[in-house]
Amino acid sequence: MGAMDHRRRWAYAFAGLAAGLIWIALYRQLAPLARWATYTLAGLEPGTHLASAVEFFLYEAPKVLLLLVAVVFGVGIVRSFFTPERTRRLLAGRRESAGNVLAALLGTVTPFCSCSAVPLFIGFVTAGVPLGVTFSFLISAPMVNEVALVLLFGLLGWKVAALYLGTGLAIAIVAGWTIGRLGLERHVEPWVFQVRAGAGADGDAPLSLDDRVRAGADAVVDIVGRVWPWVLGGIAVGAGIHGYVPEQFMAGIMGKGAWWTVPLAVLVGIPMYSNAAGIIPVVQALLAKGAALGTVLAFMMAVIGLSLPETIILRKVLRPPLIAVFVGVVGTGILIVGYLFNAIF
Prior knowledge:
Number of helices: 17
Helix content: over 70%
Oligomer: single chain
Distance between the termini: 58 Å
Strand content: under 5%
Order of helices and strands: HHHHHHHHHHHHHHHHH
Radius of gyration: 22 Å
Structural class: mainly alpha
Largest sheet: none
């Protein structure tokens, strides 16, 4: 049995190496292939708006999808070490300040989004997780995720991706800590506290290497299968902005010359229904057209972290005053990020 496991590990290692080399070869050929398809295959005239938009789309779409497949597979393996019950146990009983930091970090690697808000909230509260720690997790999980990070890295570089990661975690930690200090448990719907916590049997038996690789493959099928239309739609919008929208127009309405651009970007972003896959290619195009980094980051964070659908879902477990505090605290953090980075960059 041990020899079989050893051979299997080597087989996975060689398969991973071969897949990595093929991935790198494909990635390096994307730019010349996009130019060939635009100007030779399609016969478009260089320098035109249409050619610029088409080349942008043909380069960015396969690039982002390749990045997503690689990163989601890796994160899927990492996620195989986490379950809702195990995450809940990690957070329960922690000191609140340490719990806020741990909850925000767990939110970046666990497979939960705003659609999971109600069952997660119930499970965390009934397990004794403080309210503020719960909010740090619920803010971080949708706002700071592997899809957003890989798209930002692939489209805008590691500095912007690191900036997004750091500011997103800071908002989740500070917002959760602030909500915890306000003593707002009375604004949680009473029935939530009447729900008994689960017994704890969550299938924590050790997974084999086959199981973890399968978890990575399943994550690719599930996540990439769900977000690819958003990716293509977002890149199509970004291509249109890249090819047709004048730089002066975008710099005027999303530049850093007027104080109102950041709050306006947040207000516009809140009612939008999108996710990182759909909004980040648009962000790239806005930045390329002269929009200010802080304003665009504020817009993106509002779309991802303060979406109207998440607020509607949370209403099932939270009363309006607590929802208002949640939106206000997170919104204030996003505004600070926008103004701060407009001042620095």
